[in-house]
Amino acid sequence: MAKQVKTAISPTRSEDYPEWYQQIIKASDLAERSTVRGCMVIKPWGYALWENIVQAMDNLFKATGVKNAYFPLFIPLSFLEKEAEHVEGFAKECAVVTHHRLEKGKSGGLEPAGKLAEPLVVRPTSETIIGDSFSRWVSSYRDLPILINQWANVVRWEMRTRIFLRTSEFLWQEGHTAHATAEEALERTSMMLDVYTTCVEDYLAMPVIRGRKSPAERFPGAVDTLAIEAMMQDRKALQSGTSHFLGQNFARGFDIKFQTAAETEEYAWTTSWGSSTRMIGGIIMIHSDDDGLILPPKVASAHVVLLPIIRNPDDRQAVMDYAQKLARELSAKVYHQRNILVEIDDRDIGGARGWDWIKKGIPLRVEIGPRDIAENAVFVGRRDQPPNEKSAVKRDQFVAEVTDILDDIQQNLFQRALAFREAHTIEIEDQKTFYDFFTPQNAEKPEIHGGFAISGWCGSAECESKIKEDLAVTIRCIPFDSEAGKGRCVCCGKKSESQVVFAKAY
RNA sequence: CGGGGCGUGGCGCAGCCUGGUAGCGCGCCUGCUUUGGGAGCAGGAAGUCCCCAGUUCAAAUCUGGGCGCCCCGACCA
């Protein structure tokens, strides 16, 4: 008799949320820490997930006229100096290449040699190097707009790293556009936020709040930053995509000028927008439970695992034939532009096999044994339901309905997350309630507390930073549907400028 | 960069205080028995005890120095 374990993941979410998060990643085999400080190794199960997100998002981008390109990893140091706020925002986290050769040193080890005339920064983001190209691509209003995206890796030398959420190197996409008018650039800024919303809500099943960042939370160098924010199961906010209106700031820094139809010379209006492997962290934290990862079907690394039950060796051939035939039929079906991905796992490791796939978060587990073959059935478990709730389904019915079942799981995950967010979002008017809301009962080992507070804000940076200092709570966004001028500032009590979303954040 | 903690088979840890040449659980391999809710028994493989120096007959253990990592803050997608 095996020892009884209630949950596959230990500790549970309520026991120790940060540790639970690490354990999910380990148990699901998504990724692991690299021996390189702050970096991660994305393993096949995690990379397949990323590829699916990339594909979904890339299609959405291209549907709006964006084209992909690729710019250098290295950025001349001088480029970063061309936009004052930008350099200030990123200077502290830049990795810098200063040499181009290694030589045998005195101690026998290799030492950098061949000092570069100008140091190269490993891109933390590419506004500058892309701005440099844009300046050469644009001369007439007829050259505009330019709609470019690149899928790339970037490096930000963070103090503290957390796998998928904040790593020294991460994968992302960054879109960069240049326009003839401010209106058009603004339109593009909000259009891309719409694309992010679609991708994150429809594909990742993560409900988001859309809004504008406060000046303090703006991207360095941006005139305006729009963002989508989702609530994780520890009730903290995760920013899962940002879209920036850069005004003419970078156009001035990089001399992106064009001649108008009226023969005047003007600076272009630019935008940039990005989303990263951080979204995988969001998927983990918003959907998974104490038995492991739960993947949204539309981007799942695989959809179905077939688990042949072979009680005696004589059955093996029949069971495997049945499984392989089923796999072929399922694989031929299309689910949201992708063929259904089927795994067959015939490892002889007993019940641990089923739990492996539960921990990996695969949407559907299908057990196939002699009994099922006799009844022309399959035994199906859904990852959005408890591990023991499995049921027999006629084989043909399962094949016919599998995409509906996947859609149902997808919807269920979204609704579950939405209900959770709504349950932990409250409107707060007075300061004491606000402070209580964001203060844990046990300061030594804070329990999961707080959530999203919808409160008035007078618009002053002082109130914003006081709340940040007191509670580590920030303005996540000023929602687009915020009621202007309603109520009073939750900090100073003066007349409110807008109702904003306050939360602790990743 | 401040405060704390930790480096011992793949993973998690004990051993250190009081020096005597390394052990436990999980995992892995082999065999037999099992198998539809995380298998049992038997056997087996696997470790420069983070690095360097010192003390000592003898160092995972004591001393000094270094390196790395994790957690909590400030910074951030």
Could you estimate the helical fraction of the residues in percent?
Answer: 25-40%
Structural class: alpha+beta
The CATH homologous superfamily of the largest domain? Bira Bifunctional Protein, Domain 2
Radius of gyration: 26 Å
The domain tally reads: 3
Measured by DSSP, the beta-strand proportion falls in: 25-35%
Quaternary structure of the protein = single chain
Overall CATH class of the largest domain? Alpha Beta
- What is the residue-mean pLDDT, rounded to a whole number? 91
Please state the overall shape, judged from the principal axes of the Cα atoms. globular
Name of the CATH architecture of the largest domain: 2-Layer Sandwich
Query: How would you characterize the largest beta sheet?
Result: 11 strands, mixed
Low-confidence stretches: 1-5
What this model shows, in words?
This protein has 14 helices and 25 strands. With 506 residues, the chain is of the alpha+beta class. The protein has 3 domains: 271 residues, 2-Layer Sandwich (BirA Bifunctional Protein, domain 2); 102 residues, Anticodon-binding domain (Rossmann fold), CATH 3.40.50; 79 residues, 2-Layer Sandwich (Translation Initiation Factor IF3). An 11-stranded mixed beta sheet has the order 3-7-8-14-11-10-9-24-25-23-22. A 5-stranded mixed beta sheet has the order 18-15-19-20-21, with helices on both faces. The chain has a 3-stranded antiparallel beta sheet with strand order 4-6-5. The longest helix has 29 residues. It is globular and about 80 Å long. The structure holds one RNA strand of 77 nucleotides.
